[in-house]
Each structure stands twice: as C-alpha cells, then as structure tokens.
Amino acid sequence: MSVRLHHVGPVIIDVVMTVEHLPEPGGDTFASSARTVPGGGFNVIAAATRAGMEVVYGGAHGKGPHGDLVRAALRDAGVVCAHPPRPRDTGFCVALVDSSAERTFVTHLGAETDLPLADLRALRPAEGDFVYTVGYSLLPGQRADELVTWIGELPQGVRLVLDPAPVVGDVPTGTLATVLARTDVLSLSAAEAVTVTGTADLHAAAAMLVKRVAPDGVVVLRDSAEGCLVATRDAEPVRVPGFAVEAVDTNGAGDAHVGVFTAALASGSSPWEAARRANAGAALAVTRPGPATSPTREELEGFLSARE
Description:
By secondary structure, the protein is an alpha/beta fold. It has one domain (4-305): Ribokinase (UDP-N-acetylmuramoyl-L-alanine:D-glutamate ligase). The chain is 33% helix and 23% strand. β12 and β13 (235-240) form a beta hairpin. The radius of gyration is 18 Å and the shape is globular. The model has no long low-confidence stretch (mean pLDDT 94).
C-alpha cells in the first residue's frame, strides 16, 4: 500500500475576487473577476495529489451547495471522503486579491468545524502515513481539545504535518506546545515564525522551533520569493533558494509548498530536496490565478529540469 496523507484540516469554499486595490472603510470598489472554487485545506490536498501522493480527506463537510462543491472537487481529484456530510453547509471565504498579488480574507465558518473525536479515531492511519492539520483547527473549543487528544494517540511511525496558519497567535500556548512536541513536519510562514518565537531573525527562529518539534522532526520556514529555511536537530538551518517568477496571485502559495513538500518526503526525498521541489511548486502556483493552482508532478519536473 502506498503512503497516504490523512488530511484533517477544514476544506471550505473560496469566493476569489480580483480588485485593483482594497476600498477604504465605508467605500466601494469593483472586481475585475470573481470565481467560486474549493479552497482552504483543498489547496494542500490538490498540491499533494498532483505531486503523486494518495490523500484521504478526514475532515468534516456539510450538506448544501458549498458542501456539494467540496465533494465534487475531492472526487475529481481522486480523494476519498472518510465521513458522511453534516446537516450544516460548508463554510466559505471571500478572498480579495489586489494588484500587488496580495490577498485579504473574510471567512464564514460552517460544517468543517465539526469534527468529533469518534470520527478522528475512525481514520486509523498506518505506519509511514502522514497526518496534516492546521492552526485553524487548534483554536479554543471542544473540537480542538478532541483533535489534540487524537494527535496524542497517533501511533509511532505516523508522521504529523502542522501548518500553524496566520491564527497561530490565537492558539493557546499549552495546545501549541503539546502539538508541536508530536509534530514531525512544521511548515510555517516567516510572519508566523516571528509570532511564535518573538524574533525577526529567521535563522534564529528556525533553530528555536526545531527544538520544540519531535526529535526527528523538520522545520520548514517559508520565506515567500526567497525560498525557505530547513532546520533539523542535527544541522544548522539551511536556506533553500526560491525561483524568480512573475506572481499573479499568491493565494494558496503556502499550501502548495506544504503539499509538494509532504509528497516529496513521502516518496523518499531528503528534507532539502523536498524543499527545492516545494519552492518550485509554490513558484508555479503564484503564476496562476486562483487558490488551488499547484502544478502536476510532470510540470514540476519540467520546471526543475529547465533550471538545472
């Protein structure tokens, strides 16, 4: 059986609108384009599957038009939903992408927040499999407590991937410490690393964070167009350079990076090799409009071959 990724983060719907600039408070503006597409955790799922990894969606999803869109997208990607839909509809996010390719989010939560311990325990990842979760699922509440309980029950040999997300500053200190101690792959942005460590020195932040994850864990500190830093317990943080491209939409770039990195690790790549592939995946993703724009394995190979 191939190595699988059990994704227990929330998949929602993104309403992506392209604007010249954000309006002033009380103002108005027009979008030059608008699309309704699966987003949130789907971006990581799409990146991993396109990079050749088998994915199971172990998160919650709802009945209604948004839930239908989520299930259709997962089915098209060849991803199995582990649980039946909840009565409430799936949530959505309005993503405003301005002329600098930066994005601003407003989110309404839905059924994806309702993932009880019994459903998590039904997943049963095997030795060698990966489990992915995100900081949004660790915000205070009963479901977060149940997720932390399940993470603590994961068998040895199941590797946990954590993306703390921009909300990491709102995750309770004890919750974050507990999950980090079980984390095998910590992938976070430079801004999130500063929030967690309190230092703007990214090398120092990576070195601090790798001491907080599992003994054999790896920290991937994503630094936008500059690539990323990779840190392990037995080596100083190493910068893996990014690739120069013309960015069109940065929405989902970090998700593409996490998904490609995890798929590369699963296929036997070293963390540094996986980081180079992840940098390429994120670079290609930002050249395309939309959130789930990670490249296929063939596109990745072509991109990297052209830059050898």
